[in-house]
User: Fold these one by one.
Assistant:
Number 1:
Amino acid sequence: MIDVGIKPLKVSEVNQYIKKTFAGDWLLSNIKVEGEISNFKHHYSGHMYFSLKDDKGKLKCVMFKSDNRLVNFELKDGLKIIVTGYISVYEKEGNYQLYAKKIEESGIGDLFLAFEKLKAKLEKEGLFDPENKKELPYLPKKVGVVTSSTGAAIKDIITVIKRRFPLTNILIYPVLVQGVQAPKEIVEGLKYLDDRDDIDVIITGRGGGSIEELFAFNDESVARTIYNMRKPVISAVGHETDFTIADFVADLRAPTPSAAAELATPELSELKENLERMFARLGKDCKHILNDYNLKLEYIKRGLDFYNPINQLKERIQEQDDLFKKLSQLMEIKFKRERDKVENIFSKLRYLSPTSLLDRGYSILLDEKDNMINSVNDLSIDKELKLLIKDGMIKVKVVKINKGEFYYEEK
């Protein structure tokens, strides 16, 4: 029975009411829940998002950065834990979830335990050994892809291959990538592509997911099929941090389908650049070879010229010319040095000559026989003398003699 008199509520009002109801419930406001971690994500903000699951249901969980700093063990898919917290509503989406305040280890989940058991078994058999890995072709003509035809993975693979190397053809074998039938279909797709002669490399994978969603790629039949393939296989499950069994067995593991497409094909622009570099290097090598041959020919020519008598005679004449030139230079240097010495001596003689003394203001006293007077002992009163100065001669008579001192007559 519908009561038309009931006032309609806004969506936000309904969510707020439910949130208040949860907050007032004594059980939901402080609850412990045990389950297996699924679809775990540690956001760059520091918050953790995951689901708790058992064989009958799932519960979304969030643990904020301020609380998860106290967790002293690594959280990952497949791990059994006990979460203490409260149930509330995320009003924006209308979803209820468990807000974790504390997390304790409970044990290893069934799927994770099965994964570790199969991994150890196949590793012991040598299915993961690096020496069994096949090399990828450098220029694949056709790439085979085993994945879902409707997921984001196939779109990413096609987009990347067409962008990087449009000359490569793509053959898609659509399969289920999760569910009970998924392993069987993946095995059939891998075998079909491996039997084709026109396929050079095969990509298989999906766009990521929780541990149960990746179950098909942890299947033993898928792993053994990949190991026995003739063609190289790239595993691209789309999980950046976690590995599947297919990742370990495949010839190459890619973190995402887009990365697998990049690993499978070269970059066309890089190929062009490499070819240009190769041609440039080839041109340089040819040039170097020609230069080497030219140098060898020149060496032979010089050897022939060296033993030519005319050339030897020319060399001897040139050597004599060089010696004469060096001798002339040495003689010129020697002559200049000697000339400088003579000029230096003449300069000193000129400086010490009587004429030079007269030019500098001095005078010379001579007797009647033109002998130079050097001492007062050579003089006598009334003796006539000659006084030579710069521009002439003066006759003088001795009127007074003072010995041992300069004499100045006062006026």
Number 2:
Amino acid sequence: MNKFTKTALASIFTFSAAGASAAAFQLAEVSTSGLGMAYAGNAAVADNASVVATNPALMTKFKQVEVSVGGVYVDADVDVEGSFGTKTTVNGNVIASSPVSDANAKDIIPSAIVPNLYVVAPVSERFAVGGGVNVNYGLKSEFPTNYSAGVFAGKTELTAVNYNLSGAYDLGYGFSFGVGLNAVHAKATLERHFGALNPMAPTATASRLKGDKWGFGWNVGLTYDINENNRLGVAYHSPVDLRFKGKYVGTQSTNVEIPGRLNLELPAYWEISGYHKLTEKLAVQYSYKKTHWNSFQELRAIDNNGKVLLQKDEKFNNNSRIALGVSYDVIEALTLRAGIAYDESASVAHPSISIPDTDRTWYTLGATYRFTPNLSVDLAYAHLRGSKNTFIESQVLGAQLQNGATAVTSAVGELKVKSTANLYGLNVNYKF
């Protein structure tokens, strides 16, 4: 059972994502080998079985059954500074305001592990199948229960686990094609408190949400081997619809619990990548990735009769990510990697404390050591630095007529978000 309140319905997918590795609440940590190159070449590099999550067409490059298991530990440092209060306006003019409260909060993103598991199995010289489990969307943020701007942000937790089954076929003439089916299980927990809106009981719960839902999608990929040292790849992942059903409590229901519905979409994205082996030891990789966040224009909740319970503009923009990486085979058993990437923010038009999304730059290092021809271990480290984001966030609390004019009271926060993160990856790969 999903339990939605007014604030929860408005916020279910506005997760605090400053600690996320990609824009908004998207996660990029699909593998450790990729992390070492800032995920450059994701759609063209066939280092291990994690290709199931990036480009299924690459599965035709495997001659043995291979398993990869591991994860990435995300240690984010995200701080919020600012102030919070209320203002009452008539025709845009402020006629009353509350005392301003401190809205500072430190370390709002707890550390987390993003796990992964993949397997690729060649069926014939031309055909291969594979499967995998990874977390492609998710975040956890936690503000103090007495946080003054508690109506904007409190405790938020999201995981969207992706289960994938894929197949690939070598078309000949250097081309390979792959397709996959995705089943996504999303779980969400959200809690908000009154904060400065109720000075006598700032920790009182204003809203609470806990629920889960399944959604389904697909992905395709194509690779072209120019020759044995040069490869191009392109991959596309479809949107995934999540149709949450639960209960609504708010002004539209006179604070009585009624059924509510909210449809959300995890955005589609595509990627173009290249891999070029320049010498016997040195190779370069690059990627351009586009995520279609413009599908996330608003949050709209309705009741069983189609009546709008709430509507909140989001107006996300499509975002781009570019990455460049290098790999160097020191000896047959050891490969070193490095990478750099730039990831655009998706929430330019309507930034929010619950999505303190910023442009971010990646700096990464990695290595693979092969203990035997069948057993290898990947290690990687990444430092992410986000640009500072300063903005004003507001939420209408109510309206009433005063002398023939409408007086609107809103909660207003003047906020600044600073974010950095350190990522540590480990994967074990085994060929059978």
Number 3:
Amino acid sequence: MSLLQPKYPLKDPLPKIEDPDHLPEGARLLAIFEEQPDKYYYYFVQRGDKLLFLDVRKNTPLGLLVHQKVFPLRVLSWFPKALEAFRKPPAEGGLHAGAMMAPAEDVDGEMLAVGSTTSGYDITNFSRSSSPEHYDPERVSLTWEQLYEMGLLELWKSLGEKYEKGEL
């Protein structure tokens, strides 16, 4: 039993994608972020009005590992803006000093928040659970290096612009 209880209604899980290089019907690859060639990747997959964020590990001792997190598709345009707001100092309208997480926001019916980690930021979806056994909000952690040095934030912003233009 989880000590954590959901504050918001939980959404039903979507079917897991087992092999990101062979997407099921109705799923569309938007982009791939390659963190380490032949090993670590993030796949951005659209399935209807949802973004499936796939954390993919290839060539591991266990073979292919895929961890799927689900967000509303609008997270593509929401996250860069929410991250910018989260990083603002209190004097410029940002959160109080020491704040670890922004208040959850309704993004197309799902409650999302940006938070701070020891090595970067995370996006938490309080409307979905990572575990069927107990409540554990879905979370994607992104490092400063990935976001600002390796180009992940720029990729995310470009997908957000396409979303805003109705191209997705």
Number 4:
Amino acid sequence: MKYCKRCLQPDTRPGIEFDARGVCPACNYFDVLEQVDWKAREQELRNLSAKLRSPDASEYDCIIGVSGGKDSLRQARYAKNVLGLRPLLVSLGYPPRQLTQRGVDNVSNMIKQGFDCIMIYPAPETWRLLMRKAFLKFCNWCKSTEYPLFASVPRLATAYQIRLVLWGENPALQLGDLNTMGKTGWDGNSVRNMNTLKGGNPDWMCGLGISKKNILQYYYPAEAEMERAGIQIVYLGYFWQDWALVDNANYGVVNGLEVRNEPPQDIGDPYGVTSLDEDWVGMNQMIKYLKFGFGRTTDYVNEQIRRGRMSRAEGVELVELYDGCCGERYITSFCKFIDITVDQFWETVDRSVNQDLFSKDGKGKWVRRFKVGSPCAA
């Protein structure tokens, strides 16, 4: 495992490629941002919005997928208050046993600020069963749930004939997942190719004994279908000079966002501002850490390093402290939800651990074999 020479991005991130100097795509992109004419880029967004918005004043101009969290709250307010659009918000909700009260309150906070919002809840038992199967097969329960989460917005855009879909960050430019690269920096129509979605076709679920008629909400619209409807996904993050996890969270808190108050060593999150609507994404970040050698804290510090708010050495310290952390209670509640034992959980995780990067200590705990930030680990 090699690290970017500038930040702490590892080359184990799916879809990433470093350049000949050993620099990651996100750092190279940040260099480009220093030369951007942001006024011109804002005008480009306004021109796009004018082209794609509804000509009918009684219809919605754009559609935005929201969770009520830091990114979606800022996007919705920007679309309405800055661009002058009439946005329709779409929130795909977790089952009641998974959804946190914090998540409910944050969506309510957003709606109270003057937005129309359609709530979509896939059948809870199918959702739970697919989570179980995805975890046991891929050691990634999000493998199944990300399909409806990502498909819900373009599906509704197609049904309502709303051509403009506003999204957040560009994973190719801002994280380094080159599989999602579109025709331009703002083109999000290739988001279907991100690592988990793999094109947006969930037929593999049918091979696990799930009937296709029970997973209609999991199917991403076909490319031809989106082209016929004229659907264009636009990454707002491409147009914002200050798009960043922490900046969006600060904006959200000022506008009523409720964040986490758990200790960072319980959630692997030093800021407590992500995955506010449920508690098991953080656990999945722990598993990602054991597979690829990085977790959520790495994403935080990389942004801060690029923006000059943190040194690489300070980033290393935070990553060593919090990447891969997860409180036992989250593992226990997850196992109860998908109906497996904690022993089954760890047996599944153990089979997926990258043993070039981790080994077990005398107590049977996985510990890293690499030094965070070193030129070559493992």
